[in-house]
Amino acid sequence: MVFRRLVFSCLVLFLAVSFGTVPAHSALKIGTLPAADSLILHVAADEGLFAEEGLEVELIPFQSALELGAAMRGNALDGHFGDIINVLMQNENGAPQAIVATTSHAMPSIRHFGIVVSPRSTATTLADLEGKEIAVSSATIIDFLLTRLLADEKVADDFLNRQDIRQISVRLQMLLSGRIESALLPEPLLSLVEARGARTILDDRNLDIPLAVIALKGRVTDAPDGRTRVAGFRAALKKAAERINANPEAYRKVMEAKGLLPRDAAVKYVMVRFDMEKTPLGLPRERDMQTFIEWMQQNRMLRQVPAYQDVVCQ
Prior knowledge:
- By secondary structure, this protein is α/β, with parallel strands linked by helices.
- The chain has helices at 2-18, 39-46, 49-52, 65-73, 84-92, 141-152, 168-177, 189-194, 218-221, 226-246, 252-257, 286-298, 308-311; strands at 28-32, 57-61, 79-82, 97-105, 113-117, 133-136, 161-164, 182-186, 199-203, 210-217.
- It has 13 helices and ten strands.
- It is globular, with a radius of gyration of 21 Å.
């Protein structure tokens, strides 16, 4: 009898590993990036908000989306903080997942991205930059947002001369030294370079699109208790957002400690806030997803068009 039970237990374990299921009470391993709005995950974890919802969540920091994506494809993570482009690419490359929350959405009250010019530049408007070089990271959210910003200003997509500079440290160094005229950067890097003399001439506040999201793998969302876990995950994020919004300055030191806010940018940086209508419980709209999909298809980044319900967990 004992032997038969042992064989049965081993068979259950084998099937769980083979089919990528997650045991009901296992910790959710979530990959994070050093972005300002990832603060919401740290607050939910550190202040016991996930635990209040019956969830064990382990945050695993990454320094680049490339490394994080590899970990997702290698089944080392159950979910991640990132953007819609990453989610769509990972789905196509064999890591099925669905968006469960939006952490930042472009809105008039706070900037998340902007076009900044070098301290050595004389440019004061977008028109002054026509034909000049701008540092971007191609085939990323940065590249996508430049297209959207230019379209919003009713200028051609080739109005600026895009230079693909992958390493953010190199991008910053070239901008500050004047070796490149401008760059498209996220906060808090915008505040960092402004503190060193750079000037932001255009930002994302009028775009009305989701910028950062959290996605969980299908093995989590499709599990028998998937809906319960997703609901608890969202509830914890909502509590975290409410705490941050109630006293954002109280979390400035937390951002510094977590590596989300460079010390040089701390004084100038306007603390992150969460739009409770669209984040963190809000989900990308179908038209939002279509905007990203069309851009990715135009840039030959996406071969198949996924159904909305396959990449957004409602």
